[in-house]
Amino acid sequence: xxxVLVIGGGLAGTVAALTARGRGxxxxxxxxxxxxxxxxxxxxxxxxxxxxxxxxxxPRTVAEHVMDIVxxxxxxxxxxxxxxxxxxxxxQGFAHLEKALAAAGLAVTPLDLEAENRGxxxxxxxxxxxxxxxxxxxxxxxxxxxxxxWGVAQLQGAAFFDARRVALGLAHDALAQSGVSxxxxxxxxxxxGGSNPIATARALDDMATVERLARALRERADxxxxxxxxxxxxxxxxxxxxxxxxxxxxxxxxxxxxHLPSPxxxxxxxxxxxxxxxxxxxxxxxxxAPITEGDRVVAVRTSDALEIRAGSFVLATGRFVSGGVTWTxxxxxxxxxxxxxxxxxxxxxxxxxxxxxxxxxxxxxLLTAGVPVGRDLRPQRExxxxxENLFAAGMVIGGFASRYALCADGVALATGxxxxxxxxxxxxxxxx
Amino acid sequence: MPSARAGTPRxxxxxxxxxxxxxxxxxxxxxxGSNGTGLARDxxxxxxxVLLCEKGxxxxxxxxxxxxxxxxxxxxxxxxxDTTKHSCEDSGYIQRIAPHIIFRVPFLVxxxxxxxxxxxxxxxxxxxxxxxxxxxxxxxGIPHARxxxxxxxxxxxxxxxxxxxxxxxxxxxxxxxxLCLLNVLDAEAHGxxxxxxxxxxxxxxxxxxxxxxxxxxxxxxxxxxxxxxRAVVNCAGPWAEKVAGLGGGGVRLRPGKGVHLIYEKxxxxxxxxxEAVDGRQVFVMPYQxxxxxxxxxxxxxGDLDDLWATEDEIRYLxxxxxxxxxxxxxxxxxxxxVGVRNTLYEWGELEDELSRRYxxxxxxxLGAPGLFSLxxxxxxxxxxxxxxxADAACDFLGVAAxxxxxxxxxxxxxxxxxxxxxARAYGITPLAARRLVARHGSLAPRVLDLGRxxxxxxxxxxxxxxxxxxxxxYCLRNEHVVRLGDxxxxxxxxxxxxxGLHCGLRAAQIFAEERGLDPTSEREALMDLLGRRWRSxxxxxxxxxxxxxxxxxxQYTGLWQAPAxxxxx
Lengths: 432, 569
Fold this sequence. Notes:
The structure holds 2 protein chains of 2 kinds.
Chain A: E1 2-7, H1 11-21, E2 27-30, E3 43-44, H2 62-72, H3 77-81, H4 83-103, E4 118-121, E5 127-130, E6 132-133, E7 149-156, H5 163-178, E8 183-192, H6 197-203, H7 207-219, E9 226-229, H8 238-249, E10 253-255, H9 263-278, E11 282-284, E12 287-293, E13 296-302, E14 307-315, E15 325-327, E16 331-333, E17 341-342, E18 345-346, E19 380-381, E20 384-385, E21 390-392, H10 408-431
Parallel strand pairs in A: 1-2, 1-14, 2-11, 7-8, 7-9, 9-10, 14-21
Antiparallel strand pairs in A: 3-6, 4-5, 12-13, 13-14, 15-16, 17-18, 19-20
Helix pairs in contact in A: 1-4, 1-9, 1-10, 4-9, 4-10, 7-8
Chain B: E1 25-30, H1 34-45, E2 50-53, H2 81-97, E3 102-112, H3 121-133, E4 145-147, H4 149-155, E5 163-174, H5 176-189, E6 193-195, E7 198-205, E8 211-218, E9 225-234, H6 240-246, E10 256-263, E11 271-275, E12 281-287, E13 290-294, E14 298-299, H7 311-324, E15 333-341, E16 358-362, E17 371-376, H8 382-397, H9 419-426, H10 430-440, H11 444-449, E18 460-462, E19 467-468, H12 469-478, H13 487-491, H14 504-515, H15 519-537, H16 543-555
Parallel strand pairs in B: 1-2, 1-9, 2-6, 3-11, 9-17
Antiparallel strand pairs in B: 3-5, 4-5, 7-8, 8-9, 10-13, 10-14, 10-15, 11-12, 12-13, 16-17, 18-19
């Protein structure tokens, strides 16, 4: 018997579990397999939503972007929570994350909501705005004019990171964002880059290999203010590898944000898993079905037919990638069969074509699908509460997509925090 | 219908050649599908100067969305036997000239109990297919076999239903996009000029009404170019009626929309024929590294340039096939193929029963001498159709040369290399080698040699196939790739379940490098590729494919300008 059971071990679920655990209650975390968190780029997206407001009122700081979303997207989780709660929960959730990652040795930059989004270089050759990031990606803010020549490292044979195209793309985006074209040039590095970022990252868990890369970079470091490298500097021993690399090379080394497959995503996911263990959260396996009585969830049944009882439950199962929301004959939330909404409202259509636009670049209601929630993040069914003691966090909540307003991590942090607070309050209420 | 047999020497031209005037080309061929590209090749081989104009990319219309079979169409035995005969015959020639891009497709026809012939049904099937067997030597077919229920379930354990037995027969499939491309390459080798993304928007007429050329416009541009030719042949497939209209009309079609659904891998050993809810014949077919189910046939009155599979069509096909193979319901649908047949017009028949015959129209009788149209027909007999159209054009032009398209192989068709040896020699996987040979035949080593140019030459760009970087570069340099999306039919980039997730970016980078593009154009190219893939995937964006789409959409965030905003709710 637990006090709080969190279903889903990504960023949202972990923040919820750690928040609940912070109160000293018995917390269990049920996980199935890796979802979107393990695929993240290394950035921590909190809020970037250009063009919602008229040009004259372009938001600058992260908090202003949050305000913009709250003002214009009432169904977005930030809108549902309201500005004050969102900002508070963001800070709290981030504090938990920072602490959790620090114990795993994985550092993050601070989150300053009153600052502007940084412009981080990505492996796609785009400059992506982000409020914070894993530290290995920090050190070069391309949203601001950057002096000096930066080298984009081409590791030999690494088809997954085309330094020439990345440099061209970054320069193009940086010019658009900062008004100044940075000096970025591809630099061929005498080091075998391998064919797969995860394999290369694993190879760089070996310090001798790191030394070789470091020396190869140093050979090309003349006149260079810093290097942008593919995000492959170690997997398990990333922190040590990066430190060694930076020591030997002598100039800043910044990892580009990742595309798939993503070593930073793997690092983040593993660090979160280590953190929940360290916090004394009990790990249980895959949940097959919930067990409910009336308007309460009383337990879940796992795939190995174990029954796990808890006082409150947090649903953090994610969206399509992780299978939290599925579409077989209809679109529905997978575990409780809860109805699904998009940012436009309740989804009743049976055909994907009606909730997906004709061109991929447009915004698609289907990609914002998830469960509808109230201010306390309890899922709703036909306007009423689905269950008294069930709370939702992360991408399983509908009404937003990380593509249209870079915010997925912020939503995970804020809703993870608020859902856990709700779960704890529900315990108190039941006890009373 | 004239029965021109391939190889029959043509009679000497009956008319004196028309007075020579200054022209840019002898013949303007309109349309880059199987008919147009086949015709361009035929005419070029006969020594004529040819300009082929295709408003999109090769095989964008009926050809590229067909069932991809060069078969005899056994069902035409009942009411359209000429079609069966011509198809089988030409199928034999096509196999000879394009051995690398064809593949055997064994078929299974389960005979269900409870039909109107009761227990006689297997015997009747046997008889029917023995008749069909008479045509199979023409297409190097193995004679049919009648098999018992047990044997049938042995071959296909997933079958569900009450059966009396079954019949096996074999057909041939072909890569339609590669077919058109190879026709074009051979035409070019004989001096033809080929332009894609160039639409014929008008015809030039002289005072007497003769058609003396065409007005061309490149897609997305405003300028119109006039070319003068001695003859124009309209091979525009479903658009043939519209193109004929440019010359005063003369072609009437009854366009029939057909849809296939695509599954991510080969799911059955045989292609299997079954029945849909309305009694129509439908099939499930392993095709290269996919499985297709198809097809529908519905009168289409809509926009030929804006085709989507509808929910009705998708359910109709799934219902039919899942009744036969319930296991298919769990499989991953990755896309749709939608095309429109250029069937000749007839009133009063059901779509399925319309004849698939073809017609060569000489518009001289309609006041537009110099214009010819090739309408109707089937992919399986494209070569003979093109031959007759070429004969008609050559007659008109006073050219005596005969057809040779059945005699010479298409590029890459001679001496196919052994894929295992190729794999060893270049250090690639046997599967990659096999797929390369299936597309490039004897030219595969030339493709692989390109890999030595760069450190990443043998890296895998699209793991679904797998397609290697050297092949992408080879296609970009040699195979008329104008837009990135054209790579889909050249080397199957983004055709698989990944939807461009793994290969889109890399393909765009290589394209940008080869063409010297700036980042904006590179991103537009990626959008073109994703857009083409989206058209196929959008109607079936459910299940795992939806998860894939979520990944694709999220990964490529930031690659185009600020994401579009939905209206404020």
